[in-house]
Amino acid sequence: MPLLTTLLRRLRLPACAIALAVLAPSLAAPLGDATPGGAVAWADDDDDDDDDDDDDDRPRRRPPARVAPEFVVSVPLAADLQRVVGRGFSVQARADLPLLGGIVARLRGRPGESAAGARNRLRRLLPGAVLDDNHLYRPNAFACDEAGCDAFEMVGWATSGTTCPAAAPIGLVDTAVDPGHPALAGATIERLSVLGPDRRPAAATHGTAVAALIAGRPDGPAPGLLPGAPLLVAEAFHRGAAGDDTADAFDVTRALGALVGRGVAVINLSFAGPPNAVMERAVAAVRARDVAMVAAAGNGGPRAAPLYPAAYPGVVAVTAVDSAGRVYPRANAGPHIDLAAPGVRLWTAGSGGRPGMLRSGTSFAAPFVTASLAALRGAAPEAGIGLLLDRLTATAEDRGTPGRDAVYGWGILRAPGCGG
To answer: What is the sign, positive or negative, of the torsion defined by CA atoms of 255, 256, 261, 267?
Structure first.
């Protein structure tokens, strides 16, 4: 028995399992989830156990140090930020943001300090500020390899696009966009990066697909809903340490401010993540200016917690359905869902030299509603966004429980004014 006891106490977790737990926690989490503050979770490998075997003289590995927690904060004056400098916080980036009536900043705490401890200290230093963890947000898309459907006809959209009125200016908060893609040749696209010099831009895959779905040339490899519509793309996503494309609350907030400042009428938000106090305040400020925000509901599944910005009041939350009108199995559900639109096995602009490819996700359902609101706003510039949204919900094809429900919202989009 003493020998067996000794052997059991010497067991160690395999190094490969430790590496998987440390480097890839997001692989097991629903798309759109993020560790608060962008911190990476780390695993205890049991090398700091409390056994007292004197004959174990192997070097003991220390657990990896915690990444310094990051926060996003909105303050009225630049002088407010000076109170935190030298008190364990550093300003990683800052920007004047008229949308919030002051300054938004990205702050980093001390390495090794817990996020909760740093957050409490920051609240004491900035008692009147709006602040939160600098949450991460991810696109809501998956590549597909099955047959697609004619999504335009499904929502009653003219394939030529010629019967739609001139669209109001559309804003996108997304990854980079490739204006040289064949689907976007001749498109009216202006790119605006809000990334700091310390960040590497994300790949152009997701943003190009969304932009082409809205404004792709009608005779191109991936026709758009509103060919020629003016697009202003706020490129807010960067390449994360794990190689994934993410945007944090700081850059999303800056992007919203930049788009509103340029006079867009509708903003497409094809990404999702956790709630954030600073971003919530920015969303409310955008809505107060009568600018429509259309967001992907998220791909966390019907039992997942609500994802944001789709779940914020005033944001049009869009879920995805297939060609038969069945809701996408991975789509989030809840009382905040407003409309459903095609988003399963949808043909979009490709990447890696491919002119087009099939993808699924609520990311690609949102542009259908964005294009509809932009077309309606173009036809009636003085109409309020609430009135235009009422028109879309009133004409939607009711599915599921009669009336509004947590799966389809008001139903599947029908595109008034854009039928063939």
So the answer is: positive
Lowest-pLDDT range, 210-219, 256-265, 384-393?
Answer: 210-219
For CA atoms 297, 275, 199, 171, the dihedral sign is positive
pLDDT (tens digit, 9 = 90+) per residue, 350-399?
A: 887 788 888 899 999 999 999 999 999 988 999 999 999 999 999 999 99
Whether 254 and 104 have beta carbons less than 8 Å apart is answered as yes
**Which amino acid is residue 171, in one-letter code?**
G
19, 64 Cβ separation under 8 angstroms? no
Dihedral through CA 27, CA 30, CA 34, CA 36, nearest 10?
Answer: -110
**Cα angle, residue 243 at apex, residues 237 and 244 outer, rounded to 5°:** 45
User: What's the rounded Cα separation, in Å, for the pair 402 and 266?
Assistant: 29
Q: Which helix (H) or strand (E) holds 106?
A: strand 102-108
247 token code pair: 């945007």
Maximum pairwise Cα distance, the chain:
84
* Tokens describing residue 406: 């947590």
What's the distance, Cα to Cα, between the start and end of the chain in Å? 82
Name the residue among 166, 294, 295 with its Cα closest to residue 230. 166
Q: Where are the alpha helices (DSSP H) in 248-399?
A: 249-261, 277-288, 366-379, 385-395
pLDDT in tens, 25-35: 332 222 332 33
Q: What's 242's DSSP letter?
A: T
